[in-house]
Amino acid sequence: MNTYNTYQPLYRVVLIEDNKEVREGFKTIIESHSDYVVVNDYGTCPPALKHLSTDKPDLVIIDLEMPEMHGIEGIKRIKKAKPKTIILVVSVHEDSKMVFDALVAGAMGYLTKDTDPEGLLKALDELRRGGAPMSSKIASLVVKSFQRSHDTPLSERETEVLVLLSKGKTYHSIADELFISMETVKTHIRNIYQKLHVNNKTDALLIAEKDKLI
User: Fold this and answer.
1) What is the reported pTM?
2) Looking at residue 9, what DSSP letter applies?
3) 190-204 burial: b if 16+ Cβ within 10 Å, else e
4) Which phi and psi angles does 114 have, rounded to 5°?
5) What is the dihedral of CA 56, 130, 153, 112, to 10 degrees?
6) What is the pLDDT of residue 161?
7) Which residue from 72, 111, 113, 117 puts its CA 20 to 30 A from 102's CA?
8) Is the confidence at residue 86, as pLDDT, over 90?
9) What is the phi/psi pair of residue 89, to 5°?
10) Which residues pair with 151 in a beta bridge?
11) What whole-number distance in Å separates Cα of residue 35 and Cα of residue 11?
12) What is the 3-state secondary structure (H, E, C) of 108-163?
C-alpha cells in the first residue's frame, strides 16, 4: 500500500519590494519555512504583473511606495487578473488613508516593516488558513477611524475584537478575553476585512478621512 500520498504542494509566494536587501531578507525568512517557496521577486510592479500567469502565486507580498507604479495600483491589477491571489502589504506606511486604500483595493493583511521574522511567518500561516492578519499599529488606525464616526460598518463585537487586536492581543488571548472560540475570532476578523473592502459606509469613511471631515 502506498503511504506517500499526503504530499502538499508548496505555497507559492511572489515578492514585490523595491529595496533589494529587504526583498532578500523576506525571501530568506519565507523559505526557512518548509511550506513556502518564493517563485519570483521583483523591485517594481510592472514586471510582476507581466509574469503573473507564469508565476501563479498563491500569495503576493507587496510594498506600497515604489517607483513606476504605486503598490495600491498594483494590488488592484493583481486582484483583477488573479482574484483568488492573497495579498499581504508589508510597508513602513502607517497613514490611515493609505492603509484603507490598500485594504479596499484587495489586500487581505497589512503588516508594518518592523514585524519580526516569526510575526511574518505567523501572518503567512494565518492568511493560508483564511485569516486576515494586521499589525497592532494598523488595527489601532482602523479603530480610531471608526471611533470618530457614529456610522461605523462594524458590529459591536467586531469593534471589540479590533480594539483588542490594536492593543497587540493574540487571537488566542482575544478568544479567552471575550469567551469565544479561536474560529469565531477569525470569523470576526474576516468580516471586518470584508466590510472594509465592499461596504458603502467604508467608502464614505474614506472620503471623509481624505477630506478631513472626521
Assistant:
1) 0.75
2) P
3) ebbbebbeeeeebee
4) -85, 5
5) -70
6) 86
7) 117
8) yes
9) -85, 130
10) none
11) 6
12) CEEEECCCCHHHHHHHHHHHHCCCCCECHHHHHHHHHHHHCCCCCCCCHHHHHHHH
Give dist(CA 124, CA 181) in Å, integer: 21
Residue type, 24: E
The answer to whether the beta carbons of residues 34 and 60 sit under 8 Å apart is no
Return d(Cα 100, Cα 206) in angstroms, integer: 7
Pairing type for strands 11-16 and 59-62 reads parallel
Q: What does 22-55 look like in DSSP terms, one character per residue? A: HHHHHHHHHTTSTTEEEEEEESSHHHHHHTHHHH
| pLDDT for the residue numbered 150 | 58
Q: What is the rounded CA–CA span in Å between residue 122 and residue 60?
A: 15
SS3 107: coil
The three grid cell numbers given for residue 181, joined into one nine-digit string: 472560540
- Kindly state the cell numbers that stand for 94: 502607517
Q: Which amino acid is at 163?
A: V
At 15, the amino acid letter reads: L
Give the largest Cα separation in the chain, rounded: 68
Task: Answer for the pair 68, 44: CB distance below 8 angstroms, yes or no.
Answer: yes
